[in-house]
Specification:
This protein is an all-alpha fold. The protein has a domain of 66 residues. The chain is 69% helix and 0% strand. It is built from two helices and no strands. Helix 1 runs antiparallel to helix 2. The chain is rod-shaped and about 60 Å long. The two termini are 43 Å apart. The mean pLDDT is 80.
Amino acid sequence: MDRSDAVSLRRRTFRWGVGLGVAAVVLMMAWPLILANVGSSDPAQSAPVATMVTTGYSALMTALPLFSAVLIGAALVMRHAEAPIGEASVGEAPVSEAPTD
């Protein structure tokens, strides 16, 4: 894989992770409105459509934040893996080039 392809993949992975995280936050904020209009707080006494909406929302709110965190973490790992071998990591002191006698 070419370096530019790897950078492109890392950026695309990070963007998808952030996008899924934003979608999860928007759905979380919109849930009271969705529940009041379509959903059901008691699945035993509701229409099948309301039960499906409530179940679908619960599945999305379980999956979206998890996939968001996994994709962002994968992008960070890809970024670390792309670093040159001699480059110091964050928090490490640079290695001195001075000869020691």
